[in-house]
Amino acid sequence: MYIDGMSDKAIAAQLTRDGIPCPSAHDAARNPHRKKTAWQAGAVRAILINPRYTGYEIWNKQRKEEHLYDVDDVTLGHRTRMTHNPADQWVWSNDAAHEAIVTTQLFDSVKKIRQQRARMPQRLERPGRQPQGQRAYALRGRVRCETCGRKMQPATIRNTVYYRCEFKEQEQSLHPGMDHPRTVYLREDAVCRALDRWIAKAFAPDRLAATLTALAQASAAANAAETPTPEQTQARKTVKECERRLARYQAALEAGADPAVVTQWINEAQADKEAARKKLATPPAATRKKETPLSADQIREITERLGDIAQRVQAVDAEKKSPLYEALGITISYEHADRAATVRSRTLPTYRYNECPRGDLNPHAR
To answer: pLDDT per residue over 93-105, tens digit each?
Structure first.
């Protein structure tokens, strides 16, 4: 189908119409969290580019790279990222590990076609249009369609930001019988104005005292909390990653991979794991200097200098407003039939004062 010119989406739609079970429906026990009523373009793509369908086992498709947290302060350590290796660096098993579904010739033909399609010239952007990925959206990832439960995607239409939920043919098969419009739109500015007024209510005269007390308690709690250093966090991630690598290498050895190559990988993983454990056992050379927590009077002085909180928040750019909504744990559900957006807030642990005035009501859960 792909060689005949069909795209991933077209193939997914055709398979769904033909009644062929998608991977999550075929193996429901391993995919309890996935929809099982339709094929997705991502599943088709994953199948087309997976060389294991040729019957051979493949290793070394990714490599680990170390990147500095901050190039200006190397004492913060490194973070590990997995990067895909070129196809010519993959390690193929000498013999077929299982029964082949497609021939290597057919797989190579599909691979060449994908490369040719990827090199096809893309459509030109309209003059004056901002390149995709550079625009900041204040509510990106926080708006869901109440009807289907999916996240609404941001888009700029005639210099106005909208969040939309498109219900195409493929989605209709995922949600049979659902009364969903072809496209649902929600304007960002309308939601942000109401949201900013709601946030400003916390600093209204009748609520100001309670808000200042809560902010002071949160500042003291955040200052007293012991947070791991970047080196310790990275070391824990490295230990877990090394354990996963060792499990994969053991499986590769049992599948018939070259013992010399796999042994070298295992030695490298064990060395990385041991080095990470030593970092965890070694106390940090210097602890971070903690700032003095703000008192209620200091916070009151800051809020008085800011003036009208609602106007201040509304005047802030989207890229600066997004961290505020993230800290407040803002999520929005939009019901298109009622034209109503329901806003919920669940603050991050750093900003929450975890103490019940009536004591621990559930001590056995500790």
So the answer is: 888 888 888 888 8
Q: In the chain, which ranges are E strands?
A: 58-59, 62-68, 78-84, 91-92, 143-145, 153-157, 160-166, 183-187, 330-335, 340-345
Residue type, 91: V
Rounded average pLDDT over 195-204: 76
Short-list 122, 188, 116, 176, CA closest to 152? 188
Q: CA 351, 353, 356 angle in degrees (round to 5)? A: 155
Average pLDDT of span 27-40: 74
Cβ contact 13:170 at 8 Å = yes
Distance between CA 144 and CA 303 in Å, rounded?
A: 32
- Return d(Cα 133, Cα 138) in angstroms, integer: 13
Tell me the C-alpha distance between 112 and 114, whole Å.
5
- In whole angstroms, give the CA distance from residue 76 to residue 71: 9
Crossing angle for the helix pair 318-328 and 188-200, nearest 10 degrees?
60
| Amino acid symbol at 250 | Q
What per-residue confidence (pLDDT) applies to 163?
Answer: 92
**Cβ proximity of 160 and 343 under 8 Å:** no
Q: What is the pLDDT of residue 321?
A: 79
The CA distance from 269 to 287, in Å, is: 29
Question: What's 121's DSSP letter?
Answer: P
Yes or no: say if 152 and 141 are a contact pair by the CB < 8 Å rule. no
* Largest interatomic CA distance in the chain: 76
For the CA atoms of the chain, what is the radius of gyration?
A: 27
Residue 33 is classified by DSSP as T
User: Edge-to-edge strand order for the sheet containing 340-345?
Assistant: 143-145, 330-335, 340-345
Per residue in 135-170, pLDDT (tens digit) is 778 888 889 988 888 889 999 888 889 999 888 766
pTM > 0.85: no
- H helices present in 153-229, as ranges: 169-174, 188-200, 208-224
Q: Count CB atoms within 10 A of the CB of residue 198.
A: 14
The pLDDT, as a whole number, for residue 364 is 43
